[in-house]
Amino acid sequence: MLTGEGRIIIAPPQPGAQPCAYNERTTWHDPEMAAEPHAIPDAARCGGKAQRADAWHWRLVATGLCFVLFGLGAILVGTMWIPLATRLAGRRGDPRMRARAAIRRGMRCFVEAMRVLGVLTYEVRGVERLGRPGQLVLANHPSLIDAVFLLAFVPNAACIVKQALCRHPVTRAAVRAAGFIGNEPTAEMIERAAAALAAGECLIMFPEGTRSVPDAPLAFQRGAANIALRAAAVVTPVYIRCAPTTLTKAEPWYRIPPRRVRFSLEVGEDIDPRPHREGAGGGVLPLPIASRAFNAHLRERFRQALGPPVAPLR
């Protein structure tokens, strides 16, 4: 077992933990988290003011630097890295998979850059269970960089992205090369997402459709449930925790929290969508009715895992 900043710990099961069909591997990037993997500091659970700590001024500068690095990296990956990787591969393999692999490596580098610069620390649990054929990965969306973490750790995954990213000059080349799916128009998005799952691709999606509102209940749109019932082989929730909150909806990048952010991504138990397609008599339910019920089931699953909303630390 290795300890220390930025190293990997293969953690034994926690005392009293429920048995799991998978061997969970935990990747730690903060020694304090390694000692208490599920601990969230008390300060993150309460509102009010907090004194600035963890080299606040440096973190402000480093956060701005990370935004610049992300923009330059997106241009480099989209205009040089992906075309070069695709050309070198020739006719071998799917060019979209090559593009996704390049994006994944780029996102991993960016996550590590944020950690090394002291902007955040993170932990990922159960990552080996992600990236399966026909798997719909659903996650809550507390922060702007949630997609960065998911794309960094989920192999060969397609993703539902904002339509604006399909047109933005910095991101459109990478988005198109990877075959990511824009979220508008909704009907077309649902059809394309279902087709991707039916073809055996892994798909990442945020059921909320946008970032969560701090200190408010989760509000899931029915699109994710609809797609799951149409074509998903399995639905896997990923519970994202961010303490203290940062880069929330309508929050500028320079409004950084008083202390270093901790991200936690926990892969939950798989959900079989097949029983949710059937009614009490065993017949197939109409899709709108089944989607509404399954959406409520997903929202409750996330609510139980994440707990009630708490006021953000400011």
Blueprint (SSEs and pairs):
Elements: E1 26-28, H1 31-35, H2 56-89, H3 95-116, E2 120-125, E3 135-139, H4 146-153, E4 157-161, H5 163-167, H6 172-178, E5 181-182, H7 186-198, E6 202-205, H8 223-231, E7 234-243, E8 261-267, H9 287-306
Helix pairs in contact: 2-3, 2-6, 3-4, 7-8, 8-9
The number of E-state strands comes to 8
**Which CATH architecture is right?**
3-Layer(aba) Sandwich
The residue-averaged pLDDT reads 83
Fraction of residues in helix: 25-40%
Number of domains: 1
Notes on the protein architecture:
The protein is α/β, with parallel strands linked by helices and 314 residues long. It has one domain: Glycerol-3-phosphate (1)-acyltransferase (3-Layer(aba) Sandwich). It contains nine helices and eight strands. The protein has an eight-stranded mixed sheet with strand order 1-2-8-7-3-6-4-5, sandwiched between helices. Helix 2 packs antiparallel against helix 3 (95-116) and helix 2 (56-89) crosses helix 6. Residues 1-28, 30-48 and 310-314 have low confidence and may be disordered.
